[in-house]
Protein backbone atom coordinates (compact mmCIF):
# COMPACT_ATOMS: atom_id res chain seq x y z
CA UNK A 1 0.00 0.00 0.00
CA UNK A 2 1.22 3.47 -0.86
CA UNK A 3 2.22 5.96 1.78
CA UNK A 4 -1.01 7.60 2.95
CA UNK A 5 0.61 11.00 3.19
CA UNK A 6 0.48 13.61 5.95
CA UNK A 7 -3.22 14.43 5.58
CA UNK A 8 -4.63 10.91 5.31
CA UNK A 9 -5.51 10.74 8.98
CA UNK A 10 -7.66 13.75 9.79
CA UNK A 11 -8.03 15.38 13.16
CA UNK A 12 -9.97 13.20 15.56
CA UNK A 13 -10.37 10.41 13.00
CA UNK A 14 -11.30 7.02 14.40
CA UNK A 15 -9.15 3.99 13.54
CA UNK A 16 -12.22 2.44 11.90
CA UNK A 17 -12.62 5.40 9.53
CA UNK A 18 -8.95 5.52 8.65
CA UNK A 19 -8.85 1.78 8.00
CA UNK A 20 -11.96 1.90 5.82
CA UNK A 21 -10.56 4.69 3.72
CA UNK A 22 -7.19 3.02 3.37
CA UNK A 23 -8.95 -0.03 1.94
CA UNK A 24 -11.02 2.17 -0.37
CA UNK A 25 -7.90 3.97 -1.59
CA UNK A 26 -6.27 0.68 -2.57
CA UNK A 27 -2.90 0.75 -4.26
CA UNK A 28 -3.62 3.69 -6.55
CA UNK A 29 -5.24 6.10 -4.13
CA UNK A 30 -8.02 6.79 -6.63
CA UNK A 31 -11.72 6.39 -7.17
CA UNK A 32 -13.58 5.54 -10.34
CA UNK A 33 -14.42 8.36 -12.71
CA UNK A 34 -17.94 9.64 -13.12
CA UNK A 35 -20.47 8.59 -15.68
CA UNK A 36 -20.47 11.12 -18.55
CA UNK A 37 -23.62 13.03 -19.40
CA UNK A 38 -26.37 10.87 -20.90
CA UNK A 39 -28.92 11.66 -23.58
CA UNK A 40 -32.59 10.71 -23.84
CA UNK A 41 -35.37 10.00 -21.35
CA UNK A 42 -35.56 7.98 -18.15
CA UNK A 43 -32.81 5.40 -18.20
CA UNK A 44 -33.81 1.75 -17.85
CA UNK A 45 -30.72 -0.40 -17.58
CA UNK A 46 -31.24 -4.13 -18.23
CA UNK A 47 -29.35 -5.62 -15.32
CA UNK A 48 -28.05 -3.72 -12.32
CA UNK A 49 -24.68 -5.46 -12.50
CA UNK A 50 -23.90 -3.82 -15.83
CA UNK A 51 -25.61 -0.50 -15.27
CA UNK A 52 -23.95 2.93 -15.46
CA UNK A 53 -20.42 1.77 -16.20
CA UNK A 54 -17.72 4.30 -15.42
CA UNK A 55 -15.16 4.97 -18.18
CA UNK A 56 -11.42 5.04 -17.72
CA UNK A 57 -9.98 8.45 -17.01
CA UNK A 58 -8.17 10.41 -19.71
CA UNK A 59 -4.48 11.10 -19.60
CA UNK A 60 -3.85 14.55 -18.23
CA UNK A 61 -2.03 17.36 -20.03
CA UNK A 62 1.41 18.16 -18.73
CA UNK A 63 1.49 20.39 -15.63
CA UNK A 64 2.57 23.97 -16.01
CA UNK A 65 4.97 23.70 -13.07
CA UNK A 66 6.10 21.16 -10.50
CA UNK A 67 4.04 21.03 -7.29
CA UNK A 68 5.47 22.53 -4.14
CA UNK A 69 6.55 19.74 -1.80
CA UNK A 70 5.33 21.77 1.19
CA UNK A 71 1.94 22.64 -0.30
CA UNK A 72 -1.07 21.91 1.89
CA UNK A 73 -3.96 20.58 -0.19
CA UNK A 74 -7.40 21.81 0.69
CA UNK A 75 -7.86 25.25 2.26
CA UNK A 76 -9.53 25.40 5.63
CA UNK A 77 -12.41 27.77 5.00
CA UNK A 78 -15.92 28.67 6.13
CA UNK A 79 -19.14 28.72 4.18
CA UNK A 80 -20.35 31.80 2.37
CA UNK A 81 -23.30 32.87 4.51
CA UNK A 82 -23.98 36.62 4.55
CA UNK A 83 -27.06 36.06 6.74
CA UNK A 84 -24.94 34.49 9.48
CA UNK A 85 -27.63 31.95 10.34
CA UNK A 86 -28.03 29.60 7.36
CA UNK A 87 -27.02 26.58 9.47
CA UNK A 88 -28.59 27.62 12.78
CA UNK A 89 -31.50 25.15 12.57
CA UNK A 90 -29.01 22.37 11.83
CA UNK A 91 -26.93 23.35 14.84
CA UNK A 92 -30.09 23.31 16.98
CA UNK A 93 -30.84 19.79 15.73
CA UNK A 94 -27.32 18.69 16.72
CA UNK A 95 -27.85 20.14 20.18
CA UNK A 96 -31.13 18.25 20.44
CA UNK A 97 -29.31 14.92 20.00
CA UNK A 98 -27.75 15.57 23.41
CA UNK A 99 -30.83 16.91 25.17
CA UNK A 100 -31.40 15.58 28.68
CA UNK A 101 -35.18 15.80 28.31
CA UNK A 102 -35.99 14.64 24.77
CA UNK A 103 -32.95 13.59 22.71
CA UNK A 104 -33.61 13.03 19.02
CA UNK A 105 -32.01 12.24 15.69
CA UNK A 106 -30.43 14.84 13.43
CA UNK A 107 -30.47 14.04 9.72
CA UNK A 108 -28.37 15.30 6.81
CA UNK A 109 -29.40 14.53 3.20
CA UNK A 110 -26.62 14.95 0.64
CA UNK A 111 -27.61 15.11 -3.04
CA UNK A 112 -25.04 15.34 -5.81
CA UNK A 113 -23.17 13.69 -8.65
CA UNK A 114 -20.02 11.54 -8.64
CA UNK A 115 -18.27 13.58 -5.93
CA UNK A 116 -21.08 12.45 -3.62
CA UNK A 117 -21.80 9.00 -5.07
CA UNK A 118 -18.29 7.78 -4.19
CA UNK A 119 -19.26 8.14 -0.48
CA UNK A 120 -15.79 9.32 0.51
CA UNK A 121 -16.35 12.78 1.96
CA UNK A 122 -19.89 11.88 3.08
CA UNK A 123 -18.42 8.95 5.00
CA UNK A 124 -16.01 11.31 6.74
CA UNK A 125 -18.92 13.57 7.70
CA UNK A 126 -20.92 10.58 8.91
CA UNK A 127 -18.10 9.25 11.08
CA UNK A 128 -17.03 12.59 12.50
CA UNK A 129 -20.53 13.81 13.32
CA UNK A 130 -21.53 10.46 14.82
CA UNK A 131 -18.43 10.37 17.00
CA UNK A 132 -19.48 13.59 18.65
CA UNK A 133 -23.29 13.51 18.55
CA UNK A 134 -24.13 9.82 18.48
CA UNK A 135 -24.63 7.10 15.87
CA UNK A 136 -28.27 6.88 14.74
CA UNK A 137 -27.50 4.60 11.81
CA UNK A 138 -26.05 4.58 8.33
CA UNK A 139 -29.10 5.99 6.57
CA UNK A 140 -30.08 5.64 2.92
CA UNK A 141 -29.04 2.72 0.73
CA UNK A 142 -30.44 1.25 -2.46
CA UNK A 143 -31.61 -2.34 -1.81
CA UNK A 144 -30.20 -3.56 -5.14
CA UNK A 145 -27.24 -2.23 -7.07
CA UNK A 146 -28.30 0.48 -9.54
CA UNK A 147 -24.83 0.33 -11.11
CA UNK A 148 -22.02 -2.17 -10.90
CA UNK A 149 -19.73 -0.30 -8.52
CA UNK A 150 -22.45 0.99 -6.24
CA UNK A 151 -21.24 0.87 -2.67
CA UNK A 152 -21.13 2.86 0.55
CA UNK A 153 -18.27 2.92 3.00
CA UNK A 154 -18.61 1.93 6.64
CA UNK A 155 -18.78 -1.84 6.35
CA UNK A 156 -22.26 -2.19 4.84
CA UNK A 157 -22.68 -3.97 1.52
CA UNK A 158 -25.36 -4.25 -1.16
CA UNK A 159 -25.75 -7.35 -3.32
CA UNK A 160 -28.24 -8.20 -6.05
CA UNK A 161 -28.62 -10.33 -9.15
CA UNK A 162 -29.42 -9.38 -12.74
CA UNK A 163 -33.24 -9.34 -12.98
CA UNK A 164 -33.48 -5.67 -11.95
CA UNK A 165 -33.87 -2.57 -14.12
CA UNK A 166 -32.17 0.56 -12.79
CA UNK A 167 -34.15 3.75 -13.46
CA UNK A 168 -32.88 7.33 -13.34
CA UNK A 169 -33.23 10.61 -15.21
CA UNK A 170 -31.01 11.16 -18.23
CA UNK A 171 -29.32 14.52 -18.67
CA UNK A 172 -31.63 15.87 -21.39
CA UNK A 173 -34.93 14.31 -20.33
CA UNK A 174 -38.18 16.26 -20.17
CA UNK A 175 -40.23 13.34 -18.83
CA UNK A 176 -41.28 13.25 -15.18
CA UNK A 177 -41.09 9.81 -13.58
CA UNK A 178 -41.69 8.27 -10.17
CA UNK A 179 -38.18 8.08 -8.74
CA UNK A 180 -38.68 8.52 -5.01
CA UNK A 181 -36.46 10.60 -2.76
CA UNK A 182 -33.13 10.02 -4.51
CA UNK A 183 -34.13 10.25 -8.18
CA UNK A 184 -33.26 6.60 -8.49
CA UNK A 185 -35.19 3.30 -8.50
CA UNK A 186 -34.75 -0.41 -9.15
CA UNK A 187 -37.63 -2.42 -10.56
CA UNK A 188 -38.39 -6.07 -11.28
CA UNK A 189 -41.32 -8.42 -11.83
CA UNK A 190 -39.09 -11.51 -11.77
CA UNK A 191 -39.41 -13.80 -8.75
CA UNK A 192 -35.77 -14.78 -9.21
CA UNK A 193 -34.64 -11.23 -8.37
CA UNK A 194 -33.24 -10.39 -4.97
CA UNK A 195 -31.65 -7.39 -3.32
CA UNK A 196 -29.68 -7.73 -0.11
CA UNK A 197 -28.27 -5.26 2.42
CA UNK A 198 -25.72 -6.63 4.87
CA UNK A 199 -24.93 -4.26 7.73
CA UNK A 200 -21.52 -5.90 8.15
CA UNK A 201 -19.84 -4.66 11.30
CA UNK A 202 -22.56 -2.04 11.83
CA UNK A 203 -25.63 -2.59 13.99
CA UNK A 204 -29.18 -1.54 13.16
CA UNK A 205 -32.70 -2.01 14.47
CA UNK A 206 -34.89 -0.19 11.91
CA UNK A 207 -35.22 -0.63 8.15
CA UNK A 208 -37.57 1.80 6.40
CA UNK A 209 -38.35 0.41 2.93
CA UNK A 210 -39.51 2.93 0.32
CA UNK A 211 -41.42 1.66 -2.72
CA UNK A 212 -43.97 2.68 -5.34
CA UNK A 213 -47.64 2.02 -4.73
CA UNK A 214 -49.23 1.65 -8.17
CA UNK A 215 -52.14 0.06 -10.03
CA UNK A 216 -51.14 -3.47 -11.02
CA UNK A 217 -48.14 -3.47 -8.71
CA UNK A 218 -46.72 -6.74 -7.50
CA UNK A 219 -45.75 -7.88 -4.03
CA UNK A 220 -42.44 -8.61 -2.38
CA UNK A 221 -41.20 -10.59 0.59
CA UNK A 222 -38.93 -9.09 3.21
CA UNK A 223 -36.48 -11.43 4.91
CA UNK A 224 -34.36 -10.52 7.90
CA UNK A 225 -31.45 -12.81 8.73
CA UNK A 226 -32.95 -15.53 6.54
CA UNK A 227 -36.48 -15.41 8.01
CA UNK A 228 -39.46 -13.88 6.25
CA UNK A 229 -40.81 -11.04 8.38
CA UNK A 230 -43.21 -9.33 5.97
CA UNK A 231 -45.03 -9.64 2.67
CA UNK A 232 -45.77 -6.26 1.12
CA UNK A 233 -48.37 -5.65 -1.59
CA UNK A 234 -47.63 -2.62 -3.77
CA UNK A 235 -50.90 -2.74 -5.75
CA UNK A 236 -52.99 0.38 -5.18
CA UNK A 237 -55.77 2.28 -6.91
CA UNK A 238 -53.54 5.35 -7.10
CA UNK A 239 -49.84 6.16 -7.31
CA UNK A 240 -48.40 6.61 -3.84
CA UNK A 241 -45.28 6.73 -1.70
CA UNK A 242 -45.05 3.30 -0.09
CA UNK A 243 -43.30 3.00 3.27
CA UNK A 244 -42.80 -0.18 5.31
CA UNK A 245 -40.89 -0.12 8.59
CA UNK A 246 -39.23 -3.35 9.70
CA UNK A 247 -37.91 -3.40 13.27
CA UNK A 248 -35.69 -5.87 15.12
CA UNK A 249 -33.37 -6.11 18.08
CA UNK A 250 -30.28 -3.98 17.60
CA UNK A 251 -27.63 -6.22 16.04
CA UNK A 252 -25.87 -6.93 12.78
CA UNK A 253 -28.50 -7.89 10.21
CA UNK A 254 -29.00 -9.02 6.63
CA UNK A 255 -32.11 -7.58 4.98
CA UNK A 256 -33.29 -9.22 1.77
CA UNK A 257 -36.11 -8.18 -0.58
CA UNK A 258 -37.54 -10.64 -3.12
CA UNK A 259 -40.31 -9.81 -5.63
CA UNK A 260 -42.93 -12.56 -5.84
CA UNK A 261 -43.30 -12.31 -9.62
CA UNK A 262 -46.95 -11.22 -9.57
CA UNK A 263 -46.37 -7.74 -11.00
CA UNK A 264 -43.78 -4.96 -11.14
CA UNK A 265 -42.11 -3.96 -7.87
CA UNK A 266 -40.33 -0.60 -7.86
CA UNK A 267 -38.06 0.14 -4.91
CA UNK A 268 -36.73 3.60 -4.05
CA UNK A 269 -34.38 2.77 -1.18
CA UNK A 270 -34.01 1.63 2.41
CA UNK A 271 -33.06 3.75 5.40
CA UNK A 272 -30.92 1.73 7.82
CA UNK A 273 -31.22 3.23 11.30
CA UNK A 274 -30.87 2.67 15.02
CA UNK A 275 -33.52 3.44 17.61
CA UNK A 276 -31.45 5.98 19.50
CA UNK A 277 -30.51 9.67 19.23
CA UNK A 278 -27.62 10.69 17.05
CA UNK A 279 -26.78 11.71 13.50
CA UNK A 280 -27.68 10.14 10.15
CA UNK A 281 -25.94 11.23 6.93
CA UNK A 282 -27.82 10.04 3.83
CA UNK A 283 -25.82 9.75 0.61
CA UNK A 284 -28.12 10.32 -2.40
CA UNK A 285 -25.43 10.79 -5.05
CA UNK A 286 -25.87 9.68 -8.68
CA UNK A 287 -22.97 9.57 -11.14
CA UNK A 288 -23.32 12.11 -13.94
CA UNK A 289 -26.27 13.90 -12.30
CA UNK A 290 -27.20 17.56 -12.57
CA UNK A 291 -29.31 19.65 -10.25
CA UNK A 292 -32.04 20.07 -12.86
CA UNK A 293 -32.80 16.34 -12.67
CA UNK A 294 -34.76 17.07 -9.46
CA UNK A 295 -37.40 18.80 -11.59
CA UNK A 296 -38.12 15.52 -13.40
CA UNK A 297 -38.78 13.48 -10.29
CA UNK A 298 -42.46 13.23 -9.48
CA UNK A 299 -42.87 16.13 -7.03
CA UNK A 300 -45.59 14.52 -4.90
CA UNK A 301 -43.52 11.42 -4.19
CA UNK A 302 -40.34 13.40 -3.69
CA UNK A 303 -42.02 15.78 -1.26
CA UNK A 304 -43.71 12.98 0.67
CA UNK A 305 -40.44 11.12 1.21
CA UNK A 306 -38.56 14.29 2.15
CA UNK A 307 -41.17 15.02 4.80
CA UNK A 308 -41.08 11.45 6.12
CA UNK A 309 -37.30 11.54 6.45
CA UNK A 310 -37.55 15.05 7.96
CA UNK A 311 -33.96 16.21 7.36
CA UNK A 312 -32.35 18.98 9.39
CA UNK A 313 -29.91 19.85 6.62
CA UNK A 314 -30.22 19.29 2.86
CA UNK A 315 -27.01 19.56 0.82
CA UNK A 316 -27.07 20.06 -2.96
CA UNK A 317 -23.59 19.29 -4.31
CA UNK A 318 -23.88 19.90 -8.05
CA UNK A 319 -22.15 22.01 -10.66
CA UNK A 320 -19.12 20.10 -11.94
CA UNK A 321 -21.12 18.48 -14.75
CA UNK A 322 -22.97 21.73 -15.42
CA UNK A 323 -19.63 23.52 -15.86
CA UNK A 324 -19.23 21.60 -19.13
CA UNK A 325 -22.67 22.53 -20.49
CA UNK A 326 -21.46 25.45 -22.59
CA UNK A 327 -24.50 25.28 -24.88
CA UNK A 328 -26.92 25.71 -21.99
CA UNK A 329 -27.53 29.41 -21.21
CA UNK A 330 -26.27 30.34 -17.78
CA UNK A 331 -29.48 32.33 -17.19
CA UNK A 332 -31.52 29.15 -17.74
CA UNK A 333 -29.25 27.27 -15.38
CA UNK A 334 -29.90 29.85 -12.68
CA UNK A 335 -33.67 29.61 -13.19
CA UNK A 336 -33.50 25.82 -12.89
CA UNK A 337 -31.33 25.92 -9.79
CA UNK A 338 -33.69 28.36 -8.09
CA UNK A 339 -36.58 26.00 -8.87
CA UNK A 340 -34.69 23.02 -7.41
CA UNK A 341 -33.75 24.86 -4.21
CA UNK A 342 -37.30 26.21 -3.99
CA UNK A 343 -38.76 22.72 -4.18
CA UNK A 344 -36.55 21.49 -1.34
CA UNK A 345 -37.18 24.59 0.80
CA UNK A 346 -40.90 24.30 0.22
CA UNK A 347 -41.02 20.59 1.09
CA UNK A 348 -38.99 20.81 4.30
CA UNK A 349 -38.90 24.49 5.34
CA UNK A 350 -37.57 23.60 8.79
CA UNK A 351 -34.35 22.21 7.28
CA UNK A 352 -31.20 24.23 6.73
CA UNK A 353 -29.82 24.11 3.20
CA UNK A 354 -26.34 24.16 1.73
CA UNK A 355 -24.96 24.30 -1.81
CA UNK A 356 -21.55 22.87 -2.67
CA UNK A 357 -20.24 24.25 -5.92
CA UNK A 358 -18.29 22.71 -8.79
CA UNK A 359 -14.72 21.61 -8.39
CA UNK A 360 -11.96 23.07 -10.54
CA UNK A 361 -12.18 21.44 -13.99
CA UNK A 362 -9.41 22.54 -16.35
CA UNK A 363 -9.81 21.98 -20.06
CA UNK A 364 -7.20 21.58 -22.80
CA UNK A 365 -5.80 24.55 -24.63
CA UNK A 366 -4.87 24.67 -28.30
CA UNK A 367 -1.57 22.93 -27.64
CA UNK A 368 -2.90 20.47 -25.07
CA UNK A 369 -1.93 22.56 -22.05
CA UNK A 370 -4.35 22.89 -19.11
CA UNK A 371 -6.34 26.12 -19.21
CA UNK A 372 -9.04 27.54 -16.97
CA UNK A 373 -12.70 26.79 -17.75
CA UNK A 374 -14.67 30.07 -17.78
CA UNK A 375 -18.08 28.47 -17.24
CA UNK A 376 -16.97 27.04 -13.90
CA UNK A 377 -16.74 30.58 -12.53
CA UNK A 378 -20.18 31.41 -13.93
CA UNK A 379 -21.67 28.37 -12.16
CA UNK A 380 -19.92 29.35 -8.93
CA UNK A 381 -21.33 32.87 -9.07
CA UNK A 382 -24.84 31.59 -9.79
CA UNK A 383 -24.70 29.23 -6.82
CA UNK A 384 -23.33 31.95 -4.57
CA UNK A 385 -26.16 34.29 -5.61
CA UNK A 386 -28.89 31.63 -5.26
CA UNK A 387 -27.56 30.63 -1.83
CA UNK A 388 -27.64 34.23 -0.64
CA UNK A 389 -31.14 34.88 -1.97
CA UNK A 390 -32.67 31.64 -0.67
CA UNK A 391 -31.12 31.48 2.79
CA UNK A 392 -28.60 28.69 2.17
CA UNK A 393 -24.91 28.32 2.95
CA UNK A 394 -22.48 27.96 0.04
CA UNK A 395 -19.16 26.12 -0.09
CA UNK A 396 -16.80 27.04 -2.95
CA UNK A 397 -14.89 23.92 -4.08
CA UNK A 398 -12.68 25.89 -6.45
CA UNK A 399 -11.50 28.11 -3.59
CA UNK A 400 -11.11 25.03 -1.38
CA UNK A 401 -8.74 23.54 -3.95
CA UNK A 402 -6.64 26.67 -4.24
CA UNK A 403 -8.19 28.44 -7.24
CA UNK A 404 -8.19 27.88 -10.99
CA UNK A 405 -5.95 25.06 -12.28
CA UNK A 406 -5.50 23.70 -8.76
CA UNK A 407 -6.63 20.27 -10.00
CA UNK A 408 -3.43 20.09 -12.05
CA UNK A 409 -1.31 20.55 -8.93
CA UNK A 410 -3.44 18.08 -6.97
CA UNK A 411 -3.09 15.42 -9.70
CA UNK A 412 0.68 15.87 -9.97
CA UNK A 413 1.30 15.72 -6.22
CA UNK A 414 3.05 12.70 -4.75
CA UNK A 415 0.91 11.13 -3.44
CA UNK A 416 -1.85 12.51 -5.69
CA UNK A 417 -4.89 14.27 -4.28
CA UNK A 418 -6.76 14.35 -7.62
CA UNK A 419 -7.14 11.99 -10.52
CA UNK A 420 -5.53 12.58 -13.85
CA UNK A 421 -8.89 13.32 -15.46
CA UNK A 422 -8.72 16.68 -13.61
CA UNK A 423 -12.35 16.22 -12.55
CA UNK A 424 -12.30 13.91 -9.54
CA UNK A 425 -10.25 13.79 -6.37
CA UNK A 426 -8.54 10.66 -5.19
CA UNK A 427 -9.75 9.10 -1.96
CA UNK A 428 -7.06 11.14 -0.22
CA UNK A 429 -8.47 14.35 -1.68
CA UNK A 430 -12.03 13.46 -0.75
CA UNK A 431 -10.87 12.69 2.75
CA UNK A 432 -9.42 16.17 3.03
CA UNK A 433 -12.66 17.63 1.69
CA UNK A 434 -14.65 15.78 4.34
CA UNK A 435 -12.41 17.14 7.08
CA UNK A 436 -12.75 20.74 5.92
CA UNK A 437 -16.50 20.48 5.38
CA UNK A 438 -16.98 18.98 8.83
CA UNK A 439 -15.08 21.81 10.48
CA UNK A 440 -16.97 24.42 8.46
CA UNK A 441 -20.34 22.86 9.33
CA UNK A 442 -19.58 23.22 13.03
CA UNK A 443 -18.09 26.73 12.85
CA UNK A 444 -19.74 28.75 15.60
CA UNK A 445 -21.66 25.76 16.95
CA UNK A 446 -20.29 26.00 20.49
CA UNK A 447 -20.70 29.77 20.73
CA UNK A 448 -23.98 30.43 18.93
CA UNK A 449 -27.17 30.56 21.05
CA UNK A 450 -30.42 29.20 19.69
CA UNK A 451 -32.81 31.59 18.04
CA UNK A 452 -35.72 31.48 15.64
CA UNK A 453 -34.72 32.39 12.07
CA UNK A 454 -36.58 35.17 10.30
CA UNK A 455 -40.02 34.16 9.07
CA UNK A 456 -38.99 34.55 5.42
CA UNK A 457 -36.21 32.01 5.83
CA UNK A 458 -38.31 29.62 7.91
CA UNK A 459 -41.07 29.70 5.30
CA UNK A 460 -38.77 28.76 2.45
CA UNK A 461 -37.37 30.55 -0.60
CA UNK A 462 -37.80 34.24 -1.10
CA UNK A 463 -39.15 35.49 -4.44
Please explain how this structure is put together:
With 463 residues, the protein is α+β, with helices and mostly antiparallel strands. 25% of the residues lie in helices and 23% in strands. The protein contains eleven helices and 19 strands. The strands form four sheets. Strands 1, 3, 5, 6, 8, 11 and 13 form a seven-stranded antiparallel beta sheet that branches. A five-stranded parallel beta sheet has the order 14-2-15-16-19, with helices on both faces. The longest helix is centred in the C-terminal third of the chain and has 18 residues.
How confident overall, as mean pLDDT? 85
Rounded Rg? 21 Å
Query: What is the H/E string?
Result: HEHEHHEEEEEEEEEEEEHEHEEEHEHHHH
Total of DSSP H or I helical runs spanning 4+ residues: 11
- Note the overall shape: globular
State the helicity in percent bands. Answer: 10-25%
| Counted beta strands | 19
Distance between the termini: 53 Å
Low-confidence stretches: 1-17, 19-67, 450-463
Structural class: alpha+beta
Hey, roughly how much beta strand do the residues contain?
Answer: 15-25%
Largest sheet: 7 strands, antiparallel
Amino acid sequence: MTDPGPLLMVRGMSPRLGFALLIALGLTGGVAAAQPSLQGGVQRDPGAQAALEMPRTEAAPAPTEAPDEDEVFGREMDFYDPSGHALRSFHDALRATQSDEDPRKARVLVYGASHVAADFFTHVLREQLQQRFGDAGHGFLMPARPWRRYRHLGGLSVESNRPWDALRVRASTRDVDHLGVAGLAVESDDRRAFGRIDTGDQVASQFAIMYLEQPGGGSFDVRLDGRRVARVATASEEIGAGWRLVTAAEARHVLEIRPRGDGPVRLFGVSVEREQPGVIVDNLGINGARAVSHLYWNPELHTEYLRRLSPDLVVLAYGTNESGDDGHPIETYEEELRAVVGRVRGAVPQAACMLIGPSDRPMRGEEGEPVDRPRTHQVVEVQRRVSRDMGCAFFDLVAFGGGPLSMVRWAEADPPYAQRDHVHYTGRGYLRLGEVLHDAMLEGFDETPRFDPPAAVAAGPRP
